[in-house]
Structures are given as structure tokens and as C-alpha cells.
Amino acid sequence: MGMQMAELMFAEDVSLDKKELVTRTNALIDSGAQIWEGEENAEEFAKENRKSDLVLIAHSKLLCEFKDATLPSQTAIMFARREGEAPGEEEIVQQSWSCDNAEEILAATKSTFLITEMMSQVLEPQERLRAFHGVLQAAVELSQPIGIRFIHSCQIVASKDYLASCDYSPIERVGSFNVRFYRIENNDGEMLMDTRGLDEIGIPGRCMFKTTSCTSWTPVMVRIGRCRG
Q1: Considering only CA atoms, which of 52, 58, 75, 60 is closest in space to residue 136?
Q2: How does pLDDT run across 61-89, given as a tens digit for each residue?
Q3: CA distance 154 to 150
Q4: Is-above-0.70 flag for pTM?
Q5: Where do the H-state alpha helices sit in 48-88?
Q6: Which of 10, 19, 187, 210 shows a CA-CA span of 20 to 30 A to 70?
Q7: How far apart are CA 58 and CA 62, in angstroms?
């Protein structure tokens, strides 16, 4: 099982006020969000990311039961400078169906905030979505990035489009999951369609179809994904 991960993309270096982020997150989802400081896991995580500024937010009302301990669900935020092209970027641009200027956003990006969930895999998918998107929405509102790269669903989304979709439940927001299309070479125009982003939130069964009409199947694939979330 993977994790939900998104990069906020900026044309210049920006800062993010931790207290404002926590306050806005709690206003959105009331998860008992608070800055997670002084814990061993935070220290070790920071050591592995020396080039990044790290913030860990703990959701005290979303507890995760493990064999040896009960811990709050956490969301990590790391600042980093963009250093050259990352693997898989060409595919992400190609599969960013809701963003007409994905390539331009990527080219203009100089720094990022990586937002990722931690300690959350044992929660129900709806709770994982709620916690992740609560922090994500708060961070986007406060920092105003030029775009969002959803790593787990393989797409770039314009920030204004994401915020416009925040009136809907998390699974219905742009970026939560993606329907991808691949043309099959030398096979009479057939296309392979699949979903990305469902497995990463613990929803089993990755949808996949082979078809000659992506237009007719796209609404079906989107509806399947939303119903599962």
C-alpha cells in the first residue's frame, strides 16, 4: 500500500506559518491537529531529509492502532528546492488531463512543499482522505502555489481548480485519483485505461479497461473511483 503525496509548486521560495496552518486545518476538519515535536520518529525522519525543512502535524483525534503502540495519524510537510528534472515527469504532464498548462507550471517551479501522510495506513480510506486533504487545502490556501503535483495519482493540477473543488468530498476533488489513457501500438487504435490513486488510500482493486472509445468509458471510470472512496 502506498501513501498520498502531493507537491505544492512555487515559482520562488515561500514560507508557511506553522500556527496558521494548524489553525486552518482544525477549522476545516477538526482533527486535533498540532505540531509534532520532540519525538524520535520526527528526529529520524528529519535526518533522512537534511536538505529539507520539516514540519510534522499530528492529528490527535485520528488515532492509529499498531501492535506495540497507539499513535496519531500524521502529515509531514517538507520544503525543498527543485534540482533538475525528476523521474516520471514527462508521464505526469501527459496524464494531467484537467490542467492545460501542466508543462509550463512544471518548468516555472523553483521550490516545492512536499505533503505526505504518515502512520495513516491503518485508518479507513475516508479518514485518510479527510486528514490529508485537510492539511493540503489549508496549505494551498495559505501559500498560493502555482500548481499541485499529485504524486500518488500521477497528475498536475492548477491550484485554483483544486480550491474550486474543495466544496466536494475529498475523493471528488481534482487530484485525488486519476484516469489514465495509453494508446496500444500496432493494435487498431485500442487504448488501455487505468486508475491511479485508489490503491494508495487503501481501496483495493485497480480499475483497468482496454477500449477503442476513451470518451465513453471515462465517466464510468471516474464514477467507480468516487463510489469506492
Answers
A1: 75
A2: 999 998 888 999 999 999 988 776 666 67
A3: 6
A4: yes
A5: none
A6: 19
A7: 9
